[in-house]
Q: What sequence folds into this?
């Protein structure tokens, strides 16, 4: 899932300062799971902003609405009536959701209320970790399902650097050494021979380095 | 200190920490207005309920929970404690002062401690003054 973190109240106050009627729009998919922009977070932020504005003597009307998925037109159109009633939208979706709204509602300012941080997993309750860099050329098959591009601080593709201690990364001792994990996992899988596979220097053109990417599925196009 | 200030307090409580009959003793408190919200477990106290209590005009909010290790649902009071800490930070960020919100552990039926908790909150509110967002 995409993991995000809500911006600070002070930053959000600055962003919404020019508006007197604002819609806070949540997204019920990824950002709900990471407690950044679901229905509950919309309610908390709306309440906090109302209190903050009242304290500062600023009049503001805040409406709340959450759609199932903010990055798809089919879902965001449910918010059209609420959007038309307001001067601007504070989106608590990821950057894709904010831009999908901006594209769909050209004349309404769409403002971000969340910092989109990474593609990750829920490691344990309340802890989210980055597991995928979206590099566009997945090699997890040979690395035992553990991504060195994302999880190795040096992005090494052909074995460990030798600097790890007790299974921890020398760059950040709180991070597991990805190569330690890869080797342990390959041993469990009986695939230690994978370590003999030479992985050539990565072609980063498939990543964001090649500019915004596009995926086309002709079979789904009409 | 604000003169003729009668603080409004919203009291959220777990029914196992402080039951319906205990609420009656609060009617004797004439130095403040207390509104109670009873919950089947303190884990029911969500961030937004605490904030909305302030939106509704409370000068202070108290959450009474069972002593740690004695929650019938094992960790309800721990969850409440973490949420209260989160909302206190939020109140500080807003500029409302997180000290307006407090959580206390209390044994079932302990009216003396409950009275002391309310007295402490009233002392605190006398310093803080009315809710600036009302």
A:
């Amino acid at each position: 899932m995409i993991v995000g973190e809500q911006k600070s109240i002070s930053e959000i106050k600055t962003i919404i300062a020019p508006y007197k009627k604002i819609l806070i729009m949540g997204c019920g998919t990824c950002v709900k799971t990471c407690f950044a922009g679901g229905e509950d977070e919309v309610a908390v932020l709306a309440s906090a902003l109302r209190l903050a504005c009242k304290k500062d003597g600023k009049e503001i009307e805040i409406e709340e609405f959450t759609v199932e998925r903010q990055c798809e037109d089919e879902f965001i159109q449910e918010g059209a009536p609420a959007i038309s009633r307001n001067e601007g939208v504070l989106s608590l979706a990821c950057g894709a959701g904010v831009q999908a709204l901006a594209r769909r509602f050209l004349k309404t300012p769409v403002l971000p209320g969340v910092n989109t941080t990474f593609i990750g997993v829920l490691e344990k309750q309340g802890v989210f970790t980055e597991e995928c860099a979206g590099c566009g050329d997945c090699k997890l098959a040979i690395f035992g399902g553990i991504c060195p591009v994302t999880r190795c601080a040096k992005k090494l593709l052909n074995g460990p650097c030798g600097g790890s201690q007790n299974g921890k990364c020398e760059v950040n001792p709180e991070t597991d050494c990805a190569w330690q994990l890869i080797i342990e996992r390959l041993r469990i899988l009986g695939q230690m021979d994978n370590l003999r596979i030479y992985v050539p220097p990565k072609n980063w053109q498939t990543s964001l380095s090649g500019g915004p990417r596009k995926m086309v599925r002709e079979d789904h196009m009409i | 200190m604000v003169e003729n200030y009668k603080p409004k307090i919203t009291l959220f409580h777990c029914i196992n920490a402080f039951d319906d009959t205990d609420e009656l003793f609060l009617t004797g408190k004439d130095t403040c207005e207390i509104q109670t919200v009873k919950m089947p477990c303190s884990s029911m106290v969500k961030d937004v309920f605490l904030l909305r209590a302030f939106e509704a005009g409370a000068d202070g909010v108290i959450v009474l929970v069972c002593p740690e290790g004695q929650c019938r649902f094992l960790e309800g009071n721990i969850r409440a404690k973490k949420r209260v800490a989160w909302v206190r930070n939020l109140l500080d960020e807003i500029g409302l002062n997180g000290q307006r919100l407090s959580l206390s552990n209390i044994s079932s039926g302990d009216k003396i401690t409950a009275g002391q908790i309310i007295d402490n909150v009233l002392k605190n509110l006398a310093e803080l003054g009315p809710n600036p967002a009302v």
